[in-house]
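Structure, all two chains, one model.
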Amino acid sequence: MRKALLLSALFILIPSLANASSNGGGHDESHMALVLLFIGALLLVARVGAMAEKIGQPAVLGELLLGAALSAVVSVTGWQGIRHLLQDPAVLFCASVGVILLLFKTGLESNINDMLRVGLRALLVACVGVALPFIGGYVTSGLLMPDTTFNARLFIGATLTATSVGLTARVFDDLKIKDSREARIVLGAAVIDDVIGLIILAVVSGIVSSGSVSWSGGAWLLGKSVLFLGLALFLGTALAPKLTAAFSRIHEGVGMKMAIALMFCFGLAYASVALVGLAPIVGAFAAGLVLDHVHFRQFSSEKNVEDLIEGIAIFFVPIFFVYTGLQVDLTVFQDLALVGNAIAITMVAIVGKVLCGFVSGPGTNHWLVGFGMVPRGEVGLIFLAMGKQLNVVNDRIFAMGVIMVMLSTLLTPPILTVIIRRQSPRAIV
Amino acid sequence: MRKALLLSALFILIPSLANASSNGGGHDESHMALVLLFIGALLLVARVGAMAEKIGQPAVLGELLLGAALSAVVSVTGWQGIRHLLQDPAVLFCASVGVILLLFKTGLESNINDMLRVGLRALLVACVGVALPFIGGYVTSGLLMPDTTFNARLFIGATLTATSVGLTARVFDDLKIKDSREARIVLGAAVIDDVIGLIILAVVSGIVSSGSVSWSGGAWLLGKSVLFLGLALFLGTALAPKLTAAFSRIHEGVGMKMAIALMFCFGLAYASVALVGLAPIVGAFAAGLVLDHVHFRQFSSEKNVEDLIEGIAIFFVPIFFVYTGLQVDLTVFQDLALVGNAIAITMVAIVGKVLCGFVSGPGTNHWLVGFGMVPRGEVGLIFLAMGKQLNVVNDRIFAMGVIMVMLSTLLTPPILTVIIRRQSPRAIV
């Protein structure tokens, strides 16, 4: 009863803020304070969502669902104020920092040698996990909607390829199995399929705009990406101890330790976007893999670098997931024919990735790897947006893609929980 | 030598980012990553600035000076990219969060009863510290510049009134004397003079625009501010244990603890801007005073709330100070006649506040309180901007005000350090 009251209070609070925002305008300090309050409210919503843990689900599921519920309230009541707040650059910034820090933290907690040990398996899983959904999406969209063009089918296939690694990393973290071989394979494969997805996008866009396949363009992207990741990992590993030692001579306090770690993270995140065109999370993950406790042994602080990043991540990461939930537009579910097709495409998207789990090799839980690869996210949506720009993807196909992203994101946490619970009932107390 | 190399590397890095930014444009993900990298660079600059500690100065002095040095490099070379980055909403957001969290942290570390115990003293210090600089500024500007109008002199006087509490709080923190009676008096007086400054601004603006004094407007503002602070402190103290207990039943983890604390902070910060028109830091400080360890005893986490906020503040706070340093526009020092007048006004601003330290009562170091009240900041600049809008303050007076803010900000940390060192040589190892 009290919980219900508290929750209602939150839902009353936020719209009234939103109104205040749309009335206010202009005054900078007041707007900034409102954005901060909104971020505080998102954090509180996230923590209320963490109630999911009480029914054995990962906290991230609650964050996503409460975000989606809030989004439904907004779309039913039409409060424009919240929409304005959601588009505020500072909110978007916090959400982006959230996912970047999450991948950095994941990388920090992983070990580069352990990752390389699963490298070939991850490559295999990634390739199968890209090929099957791509082919499946192409064929299924042709069967379901015979009027779609060849180009549209290509885009639908491409949209199904890239795993959204953030969600899986969070679920593995929530369920405390991020040190497993399965988790390493999934993380590695997700980074690799981001690269493959990028190449597919370039090739598909090339086919659509020129009518022919540009093998050289694809090869150049592949080379650039592999070179970047290779350089980041090997140069990073070589330079990290020297850089940290040099900066520790300037100041050996806890603040410097954090500043260097974040510079590594943000620097590689920026490089991966600006130099190669990969997602910033790929660079952040690489930065995390490169850095290690031992690099910071010259510092006087008793806090290790994971704890420092965790202290900041606890602020930013939940914002990303509630924000992601808030992007869910439930009105697309009103068109039943469209929903039917979208569910079929989603099934293909899920089955394609689940099957790739079966090449993860002996001694691994194939279902865990397969479902770990299922969530799709912003990369798929970028493909759709690109297709729309090129006049290949229409509004209906776009909505189907959005439903696929939503379902794959919302279904993965509970399914992974069941798989893990069956495997070892003690793992999720 | 190595330090010099590292520093040069930073200074080469940032302009090249800046160029990348101005060439890039458009692409959102890449811009976001660039902003992040810039923030990482600001953090690293801040930590290099912390070298000031090696010569017995507070870290914040180094942060401000390096910020100012960077600003000089930018203004000499004319790199527009950095200027764009500085005006980016996300950077401004991080700086604002920094000063808000700093005051919240300061409030958390203070005790409301200890603060109330020095309440009357703080009120006295605040009143004298507002009256003397106001009268001094009015008289001095008349003597130095006989051609200034009555209205302009009023605005110059008003600009000198409000202490920027953030800087002093940081210096007291850096020098580890934030638990002293002097620190409490200064913090209390700074909050009070923010309220008085607000009223003066309203009254002065009224005089300028209508030609007559609006006593009722001033009284209404005073009443509203006192009511707000009173309600925030007493209602907050009564409700905090109940709210934390209720939310601890939803989730008793470390994330919820942080979310509630931040909601308190951001909520009161917003209320102080939106309801009363006070600076958000006033509300944040009140929120910190209200919250206490004991309110969180239902939570399972071993980390106390100060540590949690410290973990986030370590990211945001240095950004605020480097950002403040970057606002310094050294080109105003080129006009020597103007600099002469500005130095005279600054002397008045300093002497007025130092004298108010002498009413801080027996058993306190008057110099410490007086110089603690010296730094001026954004409130003074807001007065100047308002005066410019009303066509009362011209560009020269504006530049003088900026010099006064800069000097008072840069001189305070070393002077406070000397005072504290004389008082107890052990306090700053």
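The two ends of chain A are 26 Å apart (CA to CA).
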